[in-house]
């Protein structure tokens, strides 16, 4: 089998053209995978707080501590205090007020974590959220 003249180095030049494209795809995929993994971990941590909130809805600091215990790398800056809200017939009221139709309490729990994406800068923050309806 004879090689044609001028065909030497074609593979090297093709690699030189495609290597940056492949590298961009690899880094972009790593950024997306990091965001997905962070969101899953945050959701699990928030779920741990939600389980605690189901029995201790007024212990907001305890709920926050449960979220941070589920993922020890989280700080108080990553996990704000949960928000306890009360409604009576669909209208927001103070939680210590009486409601003839039955008071509905909800606890909103959230967590967020800053990311350091290499390429996709729009993926700079992972989030996890849960809302627990108590009554």
Tags for this model:
single chain; alpha+beta; elongated
Note down, in words, how this protein is organized.
With 135 residues, the chain is α+β, with helices and mostly antiparallel strands. The protein has one domain (10-133). 42% of the residues lie in helices and 21% in strands. The chain contains 2 helices and 4 strands; from the N terminus they run ααββββ. A 4-stranded antiparallel beta sheet has the order 2-1-3-4. The longest helix has 46 residues, at 10-55. It is elongated and about 90 Å long.
Quick structural overview:
By secondary structure, the protein is an alpha+beta fold. Helices cover 42% and strands 21% of the residues. It has one domain (10-133).
Oligomer: single chain
Low-confidence parts lasting 5 or more residues at pLDDT below 50?
Answer: none
Total of helices:
2
**How far from one another are the termini?**
82 Å
Following the backbone from N to C, one meets helices and strands in this order, namely HHEEEE
Query: Could you report the average pLDDT, rounded to the nearest whole number?
Result: 88
Taking Cα atoms only, what radius of gyration do you get, to the nearest Å?
25 Å
Structural class by sheet pairing and helices? alpha+beta
* Number of E-type strands: 4
Largest sheet: number of strands, sense, barrel closure = 4 strands, antiparallel
Spatial order of the strands forming the largest sheet:
2-1-3-4
**Fraction of residues in helices?**
40-55%
Principal-axes shape call: elongated
Beta-strand share of residues: 15-25%
Question: How many domain regions?
Answer: 1
């Amino acid at each position: 089998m004879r090689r044609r003249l001028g065909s030497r180095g074609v593979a090297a030049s093709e690699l030189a053209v495609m290597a940056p494209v492949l590298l961009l795809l690899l880094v972009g995929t790593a950024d997306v995978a990091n965001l997905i993994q962070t969101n899953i971990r945050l959701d699990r941590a928030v779920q741990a707080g939600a389980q605690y909130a189901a029995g201790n809805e007024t212990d907001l600091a305890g709920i926050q501590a449960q979220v941070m215990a589920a993922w020890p790398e989280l700080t108080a800056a990553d996990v704000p205090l949960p928000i306890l809200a009360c409604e009576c017939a669909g209208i927001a009221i103070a939680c210590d007020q009486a409601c003839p139709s039955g008071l509905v309490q909800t606890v909103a729990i959230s967590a967020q974590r800053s990311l350091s994406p290499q390429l996709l800068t729009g993926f700079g923050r992972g989030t996890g959220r849960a809302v627990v309806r108590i009554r």
